[in-house]
Specification:
Chain lengths: 654, 242
């Protein structure tokens, strides 16, 4: 390729990603009158934010007792004490304003006229200690419109879609505590126009989403979640936090291929009498509706490990007892259909009529949904790295990360409806921080260093090897599922690291043509590289997390005791250019809460057990009344990713 | 006995050359009725690793996977295919490569359309009609058959130019803002001017002759175009009648 394929651009703030986080960062920086460039690999605003369920946490939407302290503590405890307190406090402080900003931008909830506030869901969402989750007509698509409108609103914003952000360009300068890192801009592949963009900018905001495509097709998220955020971050010198913490939804579809990975139900879908069975029809988990997502996933994956899995590597969710009960049976169907309508529709379309009536068990398998871990930032979204000591981190000048890309907010567990708040709060904070930094920076005029950075990518065009990047990608996705998926062991994690070394070598032997316009193999290759980097961080962090906690399930180890000291895992690239993991100790929950929790857990399971051992004539009557209670409210509202969907996940709650 | 294979044709476009390939889709179960997207994914895995096509959610939400199936725009992730079907890029936007088209000329034509003040009180309910319009997933199926969009010269993919003339999607965005309870009446003329600049008049002339179909079933003629025409030209028509 020749250098006339390179286009030189200049701005104050680059925003990578046009989802909810990106659009909020754009707004914050554009309001300051700065020149902003948005880079998006998907068409504008097509992102997880656009395809989500559209339920968002708004503090005080329910009532005024929902103070900042209450919300902040709720998030921290739900995350098993791994979250960074400064960040949960920022989340709670800004949540109302952030939501109102989205409303000014075009988001229109239904209004509760009495309270003169947006309407919250009929029942407080599970795990939330207050009613504060607001739903929207047309779900995520309504957010999609809002984001789109925000990005095109400003004259001083330029955007480029079909553009893959390749690398943060940075230089090292002498600082007080050794070498400091300073951002100079970024390099972008514009696939539509067949160009490379060198963008000179003092501030770069990483708003490029998650990593669930590592597990494709076992995911319900957008294709583009190839871990780009984390790879961009760690390569720029950032620490990554809690990368082993991935939220898997246990009951997703395993077939047919067109529906593979999509959500079918949540633990609560199983209702009072639903159980999980292996291929031999043996019950592998009862009281499913009370279990956490991780418990369900674990039961399924253990059966699969033992060769007792269903044909497509899952298990069977058997709800037939619910439907056959003489009295309560008829209520069950109503419950099933209305509790999670989009998931129910997926299941009925994919599995057929009989399954739709719950007359036969559903084949289910976990899917990757959200990454709780991510780039280490402070509450202003400034990216930080631990040069010498993880407890005395240093800011990377000019680099910011927000939304699913960031870590430190949710720790081991994310409550339903909080991710949309995360992006509204921290996307905006990122834009403001980026603007402030740009205003204080002297502009770099020199593109030499861009050429140096670009050298590595230039060599990836026109490679004459034998291997196909797309094939390698598929192979990696399979290995990720097997080894760093919802069920992990030390052996698998180590195997994964060996595999990653091998596939890195394979990269030297790939075939990529030299064409510049939409070079599909080049695109697959750079996404593959990002996936490898991210997978490595997950594997190394998982080895550092010696017990099962939250989204991290170790089949070979016990669940972390509530009395042990909470810590985050931290992965970085060290001086020798190798990945290294550390522990970052976090503040522990007071003992009183732990004891409360223990008691409530015992109580939950005792109640479920009584239902099972009572004669059917009695239990049926009790269940009938329970249904009447739930269905009596005007609406049942269980949302994917929420803790309503998995009442068992409330355990971290007390 | 059901066939094990489906023969599907895929139209590739590269450097202005068009090539029709035949792909033998291997059914994974004897009764599988695959979507167009399944065929593309398998073709990419088995044979054509350089095949370019878009998708995102696989669940009819993100709106990026639109292609022509037998010359009709469809969402690839939810369009079932049959023996002999032909998959190609939509014809209403310029092809970058294979099934991928350049979409941003439409986004760019709307730049700043919404830069208008809003009312202060956020707690106003939006009408059902408003929410009908936010159901749009921006799939661009409605460009097909639109007499306004047809006036555009299909853009040069090497440039990031905006389209001059509008389309049902861009008019939907304007209409949505017009019926937004937070848009003050004093601002509405700006939105109508924008619609006029995008060629709204063309619809007025051809209202009875064109057919457009929304990918998610929004009634575009009744809920977008007609009310916009009324808002933009209603007065004039009345005057003429007097
Ligand atoms: C089915 C589903 C339902 C959900 N429901 C809810 C819910 O009800 N409530 C809730 O709070 N959360 C929900 N979530 C989670 C939530 O939607 C996401 O976590 C959130 O939208 C992430 O926002 P983001 O802006 O950080 O990333 P995204 O919205 O995913 O945006 C990422 C952007 O980055 C771009 N990008 C990525 N890599 C690059 C690159 N290398 N170069 C350039 N651009 C790049 C992408 O094109 C995209 O524009 C749900 C998620 C899913 C999948
Ligand atoms: S109006 Fe309908 S057809 Fe047009 S872009 Fe929106 S969803 Fe697609
Ligand atoms: S892939 Fe998202 S609509 Fe088809």
């Amino acid at each position: 390729m020749t250098s006339n394929n390179i286009e030189y651009l200049d701005c104050d703030v680059i925003v990578v990603g046009s989802g909810g986080t990106g659009s909020q960062a754009v707004q914050a920086a554009a309001e300051e009158g700065l020149k902003v460039i948005v880079i998006s690999k998907d068409p504008m605003s097509s992102s997880d934010t656009k395809i989500c369920e559209g339920v968002i946490t708004v503090r005080e939407a329910g009532d005024n007792t929902d103070t900042e302290e209450v919300l902040s503590e709720n998030i921290k405890l739900a995350g098993a004490d791994l979250p960074d307190k400064n960040i949960t406090v920022a989340f709670a402080n800004d949540s109302k304003d952030a939501y109102d900003r989205l409303r000014v931008n075009g988001l229109r909830p239904s209004i509760n006229k009495e309270k003169n506030k947006p309407k919250t869901l009929a029942i407080a969402m599970g795990g939330h200690n207050k009613s504060r989750s607001v739903g929207h007509k047309n779900s995520g698509v309504a957010f999609g419109h809002t984001n789109w409108d925000t990005i095109i609103k400003y004259k001083n914003v330029e955007y480029f879609e079909d553009c893959w952000f390749l690398e943060v360009v940075k230089e090292e300068i002498e600082g007080n505590k050794g070498k400091d890192i300073k951002v100079l801009g970024g390099i972008v592949y514009d696939a539509a126009r067949g160009k490379i963009l060198f963008i000179n900018a003092p501030s770069v905001v990483i708003a490029s989403g998650g990593l669930s495509s590592l597990y494709f097709p076992k995911t319900d998220t957008m294709r583009g979640n190839t871990g780009d955020s984390y790879a961009l971050g760690i390569k720029a010198g950032a620490d990554l936090l809690d990368m082993e913490q991935i939220q898997f939804l246990p009951f997703c579809l395993a077939s047919p291929p067109s529906y593979e990975g999509l959500l079918a139900g949540e633990p609560s879908t199983a209702s009072f009498l639903g159980v999980l069975r292996d291929k031999n029809n043996k019950v592998i988990l009862d009281s499913v509706y009370l279990r956490t997502r991780a418990e369900c996933s674990e039961a399924i994956m253990r059966a699969v490990e033992d060769g007792r899995g269903s044909p497509n590597g899952g298990a069977f969710l058997d709800m037939t007892k619910n439907i056959s009960a003489p009295k309560s049976g008829k209520y069950f169907m109503k419950y099933l259909k209305s509790a999670l309508p989009s998931a129910y529709n997926n299941a009925r379309q994919a599995l057929g009529k009989e399954a739709g009536k719950a007359e036969i068990p559903w084949e289910v398998r976990p899917s990757a949904h959200y990454s709780m871990g991510g780039i280490r930032v402070d509450e202003y979204t400034r990216v930080i790295h631990s040069a010498e000591n993880q407890y005395e981190p240093i800011i990377i000048k000019g680099l910011f990360a927000a939304g699913q890309a960031m870590g430190g907010l949710f720790g081991a567990n994310r409550l339903g409806s909080t991710s949309l708040t995360e992006l509204a709060v921290f996307g905006y904070r990122a834009g403001k921080s980026a603007a402030k930094n740009a205003n204080q920076s002297v502009k770099n005029k020199n593109y030499d260093i861009f050429h140096k950075h670009y050298f590595n990518f230039k060599n990836l065009f026109n490679k004459k090897g034998k291997l196909k990047p797309y094939k390698l990608k598929l192979d990696l996705q399979k290995k990720c599922w097997d080894n760093i998926g919802p069920a992990r062991t030390e052996k698998k994690l180590k195997k994964m690291l060996t595999y990653l070394e091998k596939i890195e070598k394979d990269l030297n032997n790939v075939n990529v043509p030299k064409e510049m316009i939409w070079n599909q193999q080049f695109l697959d290759l750079i996404e593959l590289k990002n996936m490898i980097t991210t997978a490595k961080a997950i594997a190394i962090a998982s080895l550092k997390r010696e017990k099962s906690v939250g989204g991290h399930v170790r089949l070979d180890k016990k669940t972390s005791s509530l009395f042990s000291k909470p810590y985050s895992t931290l992965v970085k690239i060290n001086k020798n250019n190798a990945f290294e993991a550390f522990k970052l100790l976090r503040q522990k929950t007071p003992l009183k809460r732990i004891i409360n929790y223990k008691i409530s857990e015992k109580f939950r399971f005792m109640k479920a057990k009584i239902l099972r051992i009572l004669p059917e004539s009695i239990s049926d009557k009790i269940i009938e009344n329970k249904y009447k209670n739930i269905l009596g409210t005007d609406q049942i509202t269980i949302k994917p990713g929420s803790l309503d969907g998995a009442p068992g996940d409330k355990v971290n709650q007390i | 006995m059901e066939e094990k294979y489906l023969n599907i044709k895929i139209k590739l476009k590269r450097n202005n050359e068009i090539k029709l390939i035949e792909y033998k889709y291997k059914k994974r179960t004897y009764d599988e009725r695959p979507m167009a997207l399944d065929v593309l994914l398998q073709a990419q895995e088995e044979q054509y690793d350089d095949l370019a096509f878009r998708y995102g959610c696989r669940a009819r939400n993100c709106g990026v996977c639109t292609i022509d199936v037998n010359s009709r725009p469809k969402l690839a992730c939810r369009a079932r295919v049959r023996e002999g079907d032909i998959l190609s890029a939509i014809v209403t936007l310029p092809v970058i490569k294979d099934l991928v088209v350049k979409r941003d000329g439409i986004t760019r034509q709307m730049k700043g359309y919404n830069n208008i003040p809003k009312k202060n009180d956020l707690n106003e309910d939006a009408d059902k009609l408003y929410h009908n319009l936010t159901a749009c997933i921006e799939c661009y199926a409605c460009l097909d058959g639109c007499p306004v969009h047809a006036k555009n010269n299909i853009a040069d993919i090497k440039k990031n130019d905006a389209y001059k003339y509008g389309n049902p999607y861009s008019f939907l965005k304007i209409q949505r803002l017009l019926i937004d309870p937070l848009t003050p009446d004093s601002e509405k003329h700006k939105l109508i001017d924008k619609a006029k600049r995008l060629g709204l008049e063309i619809y007025r002339r051809e209202y009875n002759s064109f057919k457009i179909k929304c990918g998610v079933g929004i009634n575009l003629k009744d809920e977008v175009i007609k009310p916009l025409l009324d808002a933009a030209y209603g007065d004039e028509i009345e005057k003429q009648n007097k």
